[in-house]
Amino acid sequence: MKVNSVNEGLLIVISGPSGVGKGTVCSRLRQKMPELTYSISATTRAPREGEMDGVSYFFKTVPEFKKMIEEDQLIEWAQYVGNYYGTPRRFVENTLASGQDIVLEIEVQGAMQVKEKFPQGVFIFLVPPSFEELRQRIINRGTETEALLNKRLEAASDELNQIKNYNYVVINDEVDKACECIRAIVMAEHCRTDRLKLSDQNS
Amino acid sequence: MKVNSVNEGLLIVISGPSGVGKGTVCSRLRQKMPELTYSISATTRAPREGEMDGVSYFFKTVPEFKKMIEEDQLIEWAQYVGNYYGTPRRFVENTLASGQDIVLEIEVQGAMQVKEKFPQGVFIFLVPPSFEELRQRIINRGTETEALLNKRLEAASDELNQIKNYNYVVINDEVDKACECIRAIVMAEHCRTDRLKLSDQNS
């Protein structure tokens, strides 16, 4: 009998309500876990200074993006503030097939689209230490009308209720601590019995 | 909405075939993870020099041990080489109720008894890098007749087939690496959504 790790890499989804700090956690994670591959999103928004195609994003025209949707080239996609954003399927699938783990930093809505296609993925939900803390973070982002603020808080509350669809919950109290939890989750997932291939050779 | 860690500690079972090095891994783990509580077995064997009651083991007479079995005071028990060994229930239950994690280092047979009573436990199976390696470790333990050696190898092979009843498989190639995997598993299990208590208070 022999124990082999499964050959395919892990698909790791990091999500959570807006304002929870997904971007900050994932930036730190890139430094702390350079051995992971990070998915690059496709977008129709214009490149900002310093942004390079294929590094920050895959920059697409609207017709190009719509063609990607039609041809099922995106694992998930959504429209934000007039621009399209999505996760190209091929890069994710090639990375997994090569045995490497890939991280997707995406919105809650997109994460649920990914779960339908990759139920074996590792779904991590970042949460604020408390709802009050999330409220403060959203307020601190900038001056908003009270109506808009309430709408955002309601949306965040709805998103928090998606927690049950995730495998893990990581409290984003301190960024380094959140990264350590994610590292532990990735390591533990590689040891899960249901991810191992067992062969019966007695050698 | 608020996310609370579950109040009860984790019951962590470390098991694996004889010869895999459970004792070595758990000794190192005590140094590396002193924050965990380690279960103390009850036994009818005589104390060796330096062994203290309630530290190394709970030392019992045979009638005392049999009474513990009758009164369902043991989570699991077995007889080895003429002596009884078992895991007292009260110490485990009190530790878990106080919110602390407890580690049980036990044989495969005992681990399956524990699983019936604590299905929510974290069951970790230590495996050798290969069956050949396990064979060498058993041979190196001392001079054995070929018949006895074959019997032991057969038993180890049967035990390896229990792997499917465990949540995690950790390869005991290097002791420090095995301990790091166990640390990651404990940390990740504390983040599992199905172990969290969620309340709907918006504060």
Describe the protein's topology:
2 copies of one chain form a homodimer.
Chain A: E1 2-5, E2 11-15, H1 22-32, E3 37-38, E4 42-43, E5 58-59, H2 62-70, E6 74-80, E7 83-88, H3 89-97, E8 102-105, H4 108-117, E9 122-127, H5 131-140, H6 146-160, E10 168-171, H7 175-191, E11 196-199
Parallel strand pairs in A: 2-8, 2-9, 3-8, 4-5, 9-10
Antiparallel strand pairs in A: 1-11, 4-7, 6-7
Helix pairs in contact in A: 1-7, 5-6
Could you characterize the architecture of this molecule?
Chain A has 203 residues and is an alpha/beta fold. Chain A folds into two domains: 1-36 and 101-203, P-loop containing nucleotide triphosphate hydrolases (Rossmann fold), CATH 3.40.50.300; 40-99, Guanylate Kinase phosphate binding domain. Helices cover 40% and strands 23% of the residues of chain A. Chain A has a five-stranded parallel β-sheet, sandwiched between helices. In chain A, strand 6 (74-80) and strand 7 form a beta hairpin. Chain A is globular. The model of chain A has no long low-confidence stretch (mean pLDDT 87). Chains A and B meet through strand 10 and helix 7 of A and strand 9, strand 10 and helix 7 of B.
